[in-house]
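Predict the structure of TetR family transcriptional regulator.
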Amino acid sequence: MSQTSSSGARLRPDERRAQILAAARRVLLADPHRELTVELVAAEAGVSPALLFHYFGSKKKFQYAVIEEAAAEVMLRTAPDPSLPPDEQLRAGIRAFVRAVLEAPQLYRATLLMSAAGDPDVRALHSDLRRVFSQWVISAVAERGMEITPVVELACHGWQGYVEQTLLVWIDDPTVSPEALEHLCAQSLDALLSTTSLTTTSE
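Done. Here is the predicted structure for TetR family transcriptional regulator.
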């Protein structure tokens, strides 16, 4: 198959990869709950599955490239907005994270499952994403005036695991609205942090 765009211009390898990844994003947005397959993306990009494999090497490497791009977008979207008050920074970041997941729930599920299964590349990427998000949450909590003790830091890291599991359950069985899900994730952090003073006084 000729390596040209729809306008007839020949594409460089990096441009072709970007075109295919953009097609993957369109497939996810069109039907967030549909499994992202090589065949669907190749058809959307106007290339053959064989050409997709040529540029990414394997289905696993293609999946990783899609996950990597999505993770970069999540980190960008959840970055703190210094123009907002501390409380709103935190709520806005949590909402942005939940909405990013709900735009591509199957991809999020695949990321967590591949990480849990021991895929080293996906596990490293997932760990990086968690570390960046957790540090952002801890910084935002500090901006609200709370002292970051070891207990508070542990609570923030544990809260992220709770959010991940909550999102996975919702993806399989969306019994509440996305807005209710966002509210639950945001309020659960406040509820968890409210217990840290009790933990400290009982030590």
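Confidence is low (pLDDT under 50) at residues 1-8.
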